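Q: Structure tokens for this one, please.
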Amino acid sequence: MDETFADNQRLKAAVHFTTGQICQTIADDGGRKFSRQTIAAIAETAFRQCDTFAKDLEWFARHAKRNTVNVEDVKLLSRHSTALFTHIQQRSDELASAHQEQKEKRKKSTAKRKHQDTEDNPGQNED
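A: Here is the predicted structure, written as tokens:
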């Protein structure tokens, strides 16, 4: 129990730190200032939202009788935000395309090696 609490506190601290960095960047770029209370409120809201997202993703996967969250779960989660859904869809398509290209390269490489092996040892593959 203490380890889980400590992990949770470390995550909250990391979110708070990152939120502070983002707010500082915005302040530097736009001349706006953020109070410590505002940064803390933004960080807490972001942390709670991420916690909700994680639980929802877990439930989506369970509902589909899977133990692993996949891209379709993330798309389902993002359906309420058109901009986020569009971004996730584009990234998903890019990753799928890159994965397919990798698969084709491996397939060609394997076929080329098999072809070279049969040329180097022509009598081994005959019965």
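A few notes: The mean pLDDT is 89. DSSP finds four helices and no strands in the chain.
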